[in-house]
Design goal:
The complex is a heterodimer. Chain A has one domain: Response regulator (Rossmann fold). Helices cover about 45% and strands about 20% of the residues of chain A. Chain A has 5 helices and 5 strands, in the order βαβαβαβαβα. In chain A, helix 2 packs parallel to helix 3. The radius of gyration of chain A is 13 Å and the shape is globular. By secondary structure, chain B is of the alpha+beta class. In chain B, strands 1, 2, 3, 4, 5, 6 and 7 form a 7-stranded antiparallel β-sheet that branches. In chain B, strand 2 and strand 3 form a beta hairpin.
Amino acid sequence: MKILIVDDSKAMRMIVTRTLRQAGFDNHEYLEACDGAEGLGLVASDKPDLVLSDWNMPEVNGIEFLQRLRAEGNDVRFGFVTSESTDAMRALAAESGALFLIAKPFTADTFSEALAGVLVG
Amino acid sequence: MSVTETAWVTGDQIVEITQDVWGSFLSMDLEPVPDSGEPLGRKTLTGVVHVSGDWQGTVFVETTAEHAQAGAEAMFAAEAGSLSPEEVGDALGELTNMVGGNIKGLLPAPNKLSLPSVAGGESYTLRVPGALLVERVLLQGPAGPVRISLWRS
């Protein structure tokens, strides 16, 4: 499977990738984008199976990224990985079509629980 | 020195948030220590995020250059001395984003978090004009000190 990781921090993209591998998801192809604008391009060109996106990013932020995908009719599986996890944001994420929201800081177990049923091994 | 207002965020909560972030991503244990307000070192880096909305203010994450370097090396799983200044700044910016984002969640909503900025150098002062100090904590870890301060605009 292809997993697209979208975050404006290179360090965080590495941590998300590393944590996914620690959680047992180590036989997938990982793609990276630095913001929602780049993410939209990679979703169109590479057709990932899952998008893991930060919320607070320049150019196109995470919620705009998701809303644009859904407006285009793209139903790619999408989850947020963000430092902001208020009830209002979780509700907006779900209403916009996100499958889950993982709060930073996170552990490998957090990813295992969130992705159970979304990814298989 | 702290303003008298509804304690939306306490020093203990800021300590817990910072310990959680450093422990989870840097595998570094931090412990709170008394803070005299003195400079942390000759060369420091400071991450900054602003909160806007029903509550307006700023979170500063200040640390020594050595601690920022060590933290970045932990985040990138990099060899000592192998990272560029941009990568060290990126790492501190993300740590600031996480600390600030978790503090933001405790503040009156609705509100928004800015993208992080990072400044560094010797003998500098960062100020938000007119802002008042709400909370400030100093923590000590294996790589040095880190100071978190929350200011209300």
